[in-house]
Amino acid sequence: MEIKELLAGVEVCSCGKSHKCPIDYVIISEQACDSLPEITKDYKNILLVADRNTFRVGGAVVQEKLGDRLADTLIYQTEEVLVPDEKAIAELKSHVTEATDLIIGIGSGVINDLCKHVSFEAGLPYYIVATAPSMDGYASKGSALILDGMKVTLNANVPKAIIADVNMLKDAPFEMIQAGYGDIIGKYSCLNDWKLSHLVNDEYLCEFVMNATYEAVEKTVRLADGLVNRDTEAVAALMEALVAVGILMAYVGNSRPASGSEHHLSHYFEIVGIVRGETYLPHGIDVCCSAIETAKIREELLKIEDIDAYTTCFERSVYEENIRRIYTAIADEVLALQDKLGWYNEDRVSVYREKWQEIRKVLADCPSSAEMLALTEKIGLSHADFVKLYGEDKIADAHFYAKDLKDRYTVLWMYYDLFGQR
Known about the structure:
The chain has helices at about 5-10, 35-40, 50-65, 85-95, 110-120, 165-170, 175-185, 185-200, 205-220, 225-230, 230-250, 260-275, 285-300, 315-325, 330-340, 350-355, 355-365, 370-380, 385-400, 410-420, and strands at about 25-30, 45-50, 70-75, 100-105, 125-130, 140-145, 150-155, 160-165. The protein is of the alpha/beta class and about 425 residues long. The protein has two domains: about 5-170, Rossmann fold; about 180-205 and about 255-420, no CATH class. The strands form two sheets. The protein has a six-stranded parallel β-sheet with strand order 1-8-5-4-2-3, sandwiched between helices. A two-stranded antiparallel sheet has the order 6-7.
């Protein structure tokens, strides 16, 4: 579906709900920033937010377009990767005054999440000027933050405007273009997880949202060659797909259409990297390579010949020992989250036995690891480099324990339930 159609919403959906997304403007074009004077004309005290890299890319043009309506500019000065944590949030809040009437971010993932969160808490509208087609969170209602060392997604408002200058996007570091492609390709995995949870847990599922997300994925698969060549039409189409998926997340009020087991692995590599001081890949690249890993997990589950031979098998001491080994300084927070959920006390294996033939059909209805690898290689990503960076042991731990960072059922739970303590 076109962005314009998605912005119009769905009054009565077959799922029984209505879907809306209160974004006023999505402008994806060459010289998109030329629209800023008109769409900001009602604001008088605008706070501009960027980091050093994103300000260098778009700061001057945005400042020029805003003129005397620009009241303050925050440029994060960190020399390392900007982390959306308590410190970064506090710094942004310190620039919000009683007179501030609009926040405009220049950037992609982290800047978007910080502006989204702070504007929501302050009751202010915000716009985002995108600098890279690197992730699908531009239009989503969630703000991905790292609080108390944990990766959390808090509710927030969607931006009132998304401005994406295609010439700016196509000149982004290529790994950010790869990341955006990878974030979309990973939807094959998360949509399969959604179907699985619908079957196992009777979780709400919207066929309209699922089909529209698949449509965005299929369009993106065809863009690889153009993206490699930084073709403006291909880059614009990728950005449209990323925004579309964000709108679809807003439709259902959470990230289920766009985030599943592949994102849990990505979050695991990021969080463990931060806690241990180890290198981790850009989010979308991790998602793309992690989708190959989740495909392998589905293939392992499909090899089960006698599901009736499996029973629930869980020893708290073994589980806790592994959580403390892996998550070290934040292990207590991870344990507390899962204790609150209580999922380790549930007998899901009996459900698997009861519904195994249907489950097999769902698991098989997803690209294989070989097919996912081929899609990854089309954009120039190397799964071998992913494995080399993280190592087999770290990846194996992710298969079993990445799920513990989140409160969402995915194929990772089934894998642990059936193989985790055997």
